[in-house]
Amino acid sequence: MFTGIIEEIGTVQRTIQRGSTIQIVLNATKIMDDIHIGDSIAVNGVCLTVTEFQQRSFTADVMPETFHATSLSSLKVGSKVNLERAMLAGGRFGGHYVSGHVDETRKILKKQRVENAIYLSVALSEQYQHLILPKGSVAVDGTSLTVMEVGDGYFTIALIPHTAEETVISEKSVNDPVNIEYDLFAKYVVAFTDTSKRERNFHQLLENNGFLS
């Protein structure tokens, strides 16, 4: 579990792609202070597992599901990425609950500077429209952000100067892909209130145990 508060910007040192899998080596400094094999690191919002590490770099594997469902397949040597270690149970919590499991990868539709802020409009799939609302939370490339506006097929976020400086999102351009994870609580609420799904599951339970023919 992560908070969406990016700890540092890392750099891709090496990628080895075999089919739909990638072994990726990332340079970092701050997150290397207390790193162990098996640790979870969010890379542009994607939860990856540390398989080995050196003094200033770590290695992780990208499996086919992650390859196809995220933007990690587009990373090249020199690419900048957002990095965050898994949250500590007793630590300060400044963002929102981010699982590191990306829902979809969508493109930036519009980028606009408004005084000290950068407004970004991101494409939104119809199937996820019900999970996002103004003033709610969304993780974009692993960064916890507040939704400004939701329209037909898009949502808009704003980057304050600090977020623009400390994450890779401000360097993105129109048509660049970003990883999107919608609010975890919203997904649970929808699942719990979907009475039709509960009824189908109950019907299946009865049928599986011989109460229905």
From TrEMBL:
<dbReference type="InterPro" id="IPR001783">
    <property type="entry name" value="Lumazine-bd"/>
</dbReference>
<dbReference type="GO" id="GO:0004746">
    <property type="term" value="F:riboflavin synthase activity"/>
</dbReference>
<dbReference type="InterPro" id="IPR023366">
    <property type="entry name" value="ATP_synth_asu-like_sf"/>
</dbReference>
<feature type="domain" description="Lumazine-binding">
    <location>
        <begin position="97"/>
        <end position="193"/>
    </location>
</feature>
<keyword id="KW-0808">Transferase</keyword>
<dbReference type="Pfam" id="PF00677">
    <property type="entry name" value="Lum_binding"/>
</dbReference>
<dbReference type="InterPro" id="IPR017938">
    <property type="entry name" value="Riboflavin_synthase-like_b-brl"/>
</dbReference>
<comment type="pathway">
    <text>Cofactor biosynthesis; riboflavin biosynthesis; riboflavin from 2-hydroxy-3-oxobutyl phosphate and 5-amino-6-(D-ribitylamino)uracil: step 2/2.</text>
</comment>
<protein>
    <recommendedName>
        <fullName>Riboflavin synthase</fullName>
        <ecNumber>2.5.1.9</ecNumber>
    </recommendedName>
</protein>
<keyword id="KW-0686">Riboflavin biosynthesis</keyword>
<feature type="domain" description="Lumazine-binding">
    <location>
        <begin position="1"/>
        <end position="96"/>
    </location>
</feature>
<comment type="function">
    <text>Catalyzes the dismutation of two molecules of 6,7-dimethyl-8-ribityllumazine, resulting in the formation of riboflavin and 5-amino-6-(D-ribitylamino)uracil.</text>
</comment>
<dbReference type="InterPro" id="IPR026017">
    <property type="entry name" value="Lumazine-bd_dom"/>
</dbReference>
<keyword id="KW-0677">Repeat</keyword>
<feature type="repeat" description="Lumazine-binding">
    <location>
        <begin position="1"/>
        <end position="96"/>
    </location>
</feature>
<feature type="repeat" description="Lumazine-binding">
    <location>
        <begin position="97"/>
        <end position="193"/>
    </location>
</feature>
